[in-house]
Amino acid sequence: MKKHLFILCFALLSCLGFAQEKPKYYNASKFGIRSDGVTMNTRSIQYAIDWIAEQGGGTLRFWVGRYLTGSIHLKSNVTIELVEGAVLVGSTNPFDYDRLEATSDHALILAEGVENIRLIGYYNSGGVIDGQGRELGNNCTDLVHKGLLNDRLSNDRVAEGFRPRLLLFRECKNVEVDNVTFRNAANWVTMYDQCENVKVNNVRIQSTAFWNNDGIDIVDCDGFLLTNSYINSSDDAICLKSHSAKKLCQNIEVRNCTARSSASGIKFGTMGAGGFKNVKIINNTVYDTYRSAITIQSVDGGICEDILVDSLFATNVGNAIYLNIGARRDKQSSMSNITIRNMTCEVAASKPDAGYEYEGPIEDLPRNVSPCGIIGLKDSKIKNVTLENIDITFPGGGDPNYAHRGLDELDKVPEMPKAYPEFSQHMELPAWGFYVRHVDGLTMSNITLKALKKDYRIAIVLDDVARHKINDLKVDETGGNNKDFIFEKE
Asked: What residue ranges of the chain are covered by domains with CATH 2.160.20.10?
């Protein structure tokens, strides 16, 4: 009998313990939060978050409706859950947005120095966060015209610091964002700054409503996993940055994502003050992208090392691969141990983002289609680059009468260490496939380069490249069968 009582008591205690650990859900309506799309809910939502945090944590659940709000601050152990059909709508009044203490950046959803926070969607596609970015951005500009904000209005738009982001998490630990749609930001859409242990999965970013709409910015984070997401943005889609010289953006993985951009698809930099280390970019797709499918830069005095890009499929892009070292801040940068393998790419003959809401800028002409660039500096060479199983189709058709640069003019290719780094910064280059300069250690294996039209340029130019090995190179240039494939400057 005592044995049975002991078992019964143990079972009851176990059930009580389970009940205590069960997540607590609170409906938004409990706190007077309205879903009519016109009631300003900022204070009621913030009260709900603070109250839940005081209870030890739990979930604030938003059901179907439109919830208008200004900035809200997530607290430790609090989850925001958006049921399918729920939309958090950002205010169009710039004065409704708060700034972080550490950086003075502002956003709709903020978190600073907290842990165990979640923003998740429930049921099918989950909920939406809509920043009303065009209206908000134009209202920021209007405040400058009224003399209420002080800005120089470059191109008749306010600078980035005056336009709020949609999401900004700073120095947070154990972060999860899952099954949420972000759309229409006035600035960068989502930014994770100096966070640890972040998981972002199945997010959909649709933001081409205003300038500087980076899709997702991963800044000086340690331990970041981005998976199964779709990003369509008017600026860089997936962008790794390093703002602090004392930090690294490291232990990052981007897997199974699709990106479209009127800038670069997947980009390291700009900034790169501390640098990037141990990053894996695996099984991703880039399409209709104005600049590079993958660009890896180290131009601000930081390091860039141990980078793997594997299984990247890119179509209709302005450039396939761009690796670059610069010295914008009079500090020596470095780049080493870069591997790009199993990549297929089609480079566009014309503007790849033509027709999108915000297109990339029309560049100065004349300029022929640029090759892939792997370009270091004389005193800071890119080291140990491996390219394997890569198939790139170029439009070809380079015209020497349009803008000529011959193999005897390599010294005229500018170094440009302080320029804003983009694949087109060197203007006319003497190769149509790869232009490689100031590199120590290059392995190219099983590379297929196709040019759909005859090009006056050669496929590959090596300029100041030490320790290089090229195996299984296949070059198919229409009408160019009698040309050499590789030129190496002695």
From this structure: 24-166
